[in-house]
Structure formats: C-alpha cells, structure tokens
Amino acid sequence: MARTKDRYLKVLRHPYEPVVLLRKYRAAGYLRLSEDSERKQSDSIENQRYMINQYAKEHEDIEIVMFFEDDGFTGTNFHRSGFEQMMDAVRNGEIDCIIVKDVSRFGREHIQVGDYIDKVFPFLGVRFISIMDYYDSINPDCDRERMILSIKSLVHEMYPRDISRKVHSTFRAKRERGEVRRSNGIPYGFYMEAGDTSYRIDYKTYRIYKKIVGWYVAGCALKDIVRLLFKRGILTPSQYRKTGLVYQNDTVKANIWVESAIWWMLRNPVYEGTLELHKTEQILYENIAQRSLPREEYLVFENAHPKILSHERFVWLQEIIAQRETKSEKEDLPLWQSMEEKVFSGILFCGDCMGRMKRRSQRKMVDGKRYCCPAN
C-alpha cells in the first residue's frame, strides 16, 4: 500500500551518511498589528502571513496548520484573544511550533517575552521562530541571535513608552492652548462648527438648560425635573445630537432623561464660561486604559467661551446645591435593599418611556394603574 508522502517524517539520504529522520513540526503562524500608529504597509497582517507561509515552504520540516491573529491589539501585554487561543492549542497538543515575522509582533514586554522564549516554550516542547531576527530555538548556533533578540525585545518595550510620552506631551500642549475638543463631548446648550476652537451658545437648547436651573432653584428635586422634561416632550441630549430636534414629534419620541446628567449640568462650570481639561489620562504602555486625575491637575481656562450663566448666578447655584445636598437614598437603605436595586440596574426599563425603572418603597397610582416609571 502506498504511503502518504511527507506526512510526518522526511527522509534525507546521503551516499556516505546513514538515513536521518527529521521531525515534522505542526506550526502556527502568529500575526499581530497594534494601534493606528503601527499600521505600516510593511507590518500589515497579510504581509506577515505571506512571510510566514514562504518561510514554511522553504523548510520541509515545518507544516503550517493554523494562523492566529490579533489585529488592533497592543503588544505591551498578552491579554489578546488570538494569543490566548494559540496557547490553548499548544496545551492541547495541536501545535508544537510558533512562527512570527519578528519578536515585536509576538510582544513588546521585555520580561514576559523572555520568559516565554526561554522558559515556557522549552518546557512545553514548542519551537519558536522569529524570521526577521534569524532566530530558531532548535538551532544550537543561535546563542548570538538570542542575545540580539533580547536586546531587540528591550528596545521594542521602550518604543511604546517613548511614543506614549511624545503623544501625551503633544496633547498636553494642545490642551494648554485650549485646542483639544471632542465633538461628542460638547455640553448641552453649546455647539461647535468645524474648525472652531471654542464653544458657541446653541440658542435652540440653552433655554432648556435655563429652565432646568430655574426648576432646581425653585425647589424641584432631580426626579421632578426628569418628569417635567419628559412630560413636555423635550428630547435628551443624545437624541438632540442625533436628530437636531429639541422636542419630540410624530416620528421621534422623547426618552427619559438621566438624573446624573442633570446633576452634572448643574455643577459644570462650563456654563459660566470656564473650561476644564485634562481630567483623565491614558498610559497604554503601563496597561492603564484611563484613570481620573485629582482636581489640582486639571487645566482650567476662565472666560474660554460665551457664558450661559453669569459667574455670580453660577456661584449662587452651587451654594444652593451645597445646602440641599443630603446623603444618597441608597446609603440609607438596608444592605439587602441596596443589593436588590443593583441586581436589576440597567435591566428593567419602562415599556412606555424606555427609561430605567427605579426602586420605590410605595407604588404610585396614575389613572387607576400602578406605576414605577421615573417619569410618573
């Protein structure tokens, strides 16, 4: 019966040497491309795939059985779906060789990269190949390349740190000039034209903000303001951004406002012309996606744009807020009631207004029906 050619073993014959049996490795190609700053044609996913396939064709002891891909993942950590799937395949015995274009595609964290290459892969019996670094872990003459690989790994780790610092300093300089704005972060009552460097008063919505302030000063609680806005058919800020409509009509129905959004609007100094920037910070090379900064580190610009409230009226509003601030209703609840509310948070919504349902100790009667809707 005919044998399947080159299924697992390759036989090399030499007239003066005995038959040598070479192991056939089941290899996986690992492909990674990070954020937009790394998106160069030379590092594209398809280019990495092509190089790995070509390398396997030139080495008869390697058979590519699968590829694993992490497109848009940073190399500063190993929390990547494709990498984790590849390691599962290693543990299940599906592959015993890993090929990458270069060590930076594998990872940019020097210590962890070294641990995988020097400890984890040898322990698991996995061959590791980095094509551009001329490194193959089964080659006994790769000591020099291993040293160079270690140096490159350290350089690769420093690269995102350097880029992050440069980007951070650039954005900070722009913030200090008041230039950094995000369109989806424009406060309700303002707008920005393309190319603007400061907010302008939106005369379609700034009156709604003044109504909210007036209701609060008159003694309305946040939940009362929510009801008033909903009953008057005033669209939420997110609906206004999408539709450009202030009030509901036959095609667009008003959603329920969120109390926290109103609370933020009442306390935000942007309405008295003061701009606060640099409230949060990202340090991606330390795996910190976002962290809040203390208030003393904010960049504050007074009279940065037109005012909806005068400084005196805004200060007066803050004094009223301070007088009316009380403990949160949740803090006065027994533990089991507080936990009960958290369990259904974000799950229960009103079928009429689509607002988040709120826990109440007593149901209200509206038109002979029992309701827990925040708009009633």
Radius of gyration: 31 Å
Q: Could you give a short account of the major beta sheet?
A: 5 strands, mixed
Taking all residues together, what is the mean pLDDT? 76
Roughly what fraction of the amino acids lie in strands? Answer: 15-25%
Q: Spell the H/E element sequence.
A: EEEHEHEHHEEHEEHHHHEEEEHHHEE
Count of helical regions: 12
Please identify the structural class as seen in this structure.
alpha/beta
General form: elongated
Major sheet: arrangement of strands: 4-3-5-6-7
- Write down how many β-strands occur, each being a DSSP E stretch of 2 or more residues: 15
- Tell me the distance between the termini: 83 Å
Helix content: 25-40%
Provide the low-confidence segments as ranges. Answer: 7-20, 327-341, 361-366
Give a short synopsis of this structure:
The protein is an alpha/beta fold. It has helices at residues 45-57, 81-91, 103-106, 110-124, 143-176, 206-217, 222-231, 237-243, 259-267, 311-324, 329-332, 335-343; strands at residues 9-14, 17-23, 25-33, 62-71, 97-100, 127-130, 135-136, 190-191, 200-201, 275-277, 280-283, 288-292, 299-301, 364-366, 369-371.
Structure description:
The model is unreliable at 7-20, 327-341 and 361-366 (pLDDT under 50). The protein has a five-stranded mixed beta sheet, with helices on both faces. Strands 1-2 form a two-stranded antiparallel sheet. The chain has a two-stranded antiparallel sheet with strand order 8-9. It starts with 8 loop residues before the first strand and ends in a 5-residue tail after the last strand. The chain is elongated. The chain is an alpha/beta fold and 376 residues long. The protein contains twelve helices and 15 strands.
